Amino acid sequence: MPGVGQKSAQRIAFHLLERDRDGASALSSALADAVDGIGHCSRCRMLTEYELCSICSASGRDQSSLCVVESPADVMAVEDATGFRGLYFVLMGHLSPLDGIGPDELGLDVLEERLRQEDVKEMIIATNPTVEGDATAHFLADVATRNNVQASRIAHGVPLGGELEYVDGGTLSHAFYGRRVV
User: Fold this and answer.
1) pLDDT tens digits, residue range 50-61?
2) pTM over 0.85
3) Which DSSP string do the residues of 86-130 spell out, in sequence order?
4) How far is Cα 103 from Cα 101, in angstroms, rounded to an integer?
5) What domains are defined for the chain?
6) Interacting residues of 163 by C-beta distance below 8 A, sequence separation 6+
């Protein structure tokens, strides 16, 4: 698991096996339930137990503002650190030709359909500030332009090579509100 090294994983496993077998059973049951019961929102691709996630189904969100992120963890980072009240689209990755990840694998056809059918005025591109994230951002800006939607990119301030889910809330909030048109 990301963030859990070999030693930590070993300590967790030994603890569960030696001292908390009931906890281990509960954990494995919860993981099995999650794998069976959690899928993707049909509108934004966020993880959810329902057809639409809680953000897409919430009334009062700004329908004209769409934030595009790489992962569900990025949605949570933006929600926790900012006052953003718009909607999201989750790419579930970034463009990476060397890894065989192109526009089709990121659901960009679904995104483009949303831009055509919904009244989106601004697409905020909140991909990670990595080489792949920047390439993805440029591609997304072209998609927005083709669909007469203003594209903006979150401001830098997030460390180069960093990932949104690991950035502190103050830095992410500053970067988000300092975004500029691409």
Assistant:
1) 999 999 999 999
2) no
3) EEEEE-SS--BGGGTB-GGGGTHHHHHHHHHHS---EEEE---SS
4) 7
5) 6-37 (no CATH), 59-181 (3.40.1360.10)
6) 128, 130
